[in-house]
TrEMBL record:
This is Uncharacterized protein. The keyword Transmembrane helix applies. Keywords: Membrane, Transmembrane, Transmembrane helix. The chain crosses the membrane at residues 36-54, 61-82.
Length: 106
């Protein structure tokens, strides 16, 4: 069975969004946004799983679900970067003399 052109375009766009999500994931992890990455992927997986009960052609529904889930993951990641100014959770330098960073004699 050959897929129609519009369906191939939907699959191509969702693949492009998935690649963007992987780049944004690496960026967020680099700035300490581990929780935002997890939230984005859980949200996308939930949206993808939510399409199981949608009636219709399974190939068409799964292509649109893949597009929607990838778009949602990218939106959550970009939203995190925009709202935090690119500094998702970069910790401040620890104050010397406190906690694990201290070099106090025992």
């Amino acid at each position: 069975m050959l897929l129609p052109g519009w369906l191939m375009a939907v699959l191509a766009l969702s693949s492009l969004l998935l690649m963007a999500a992987h780049v944004l994931q690496a960026l967020l992890v680099a700035v300490g946004g581990h929780r935002a990455v997890a939230l984005a992927w859980i949200t996308g997986a939930g949206a993808l799983a939510g399409t199981i009960l949608v009636p219709g052609d399974p190939i068409v529904i799964s292509a649109w679900a893949q597009l929607g889930a990838c778009a949602l993951v990218v939106a959550v990641m970009v939203g995190t970067l925009v709202t935090t100014g690119g500094r998702a959770a970069v910790p401040e330098r620890p104050t010397p003399g406190y906690g694990a960073w201290s070099r106090r004699p025992l």
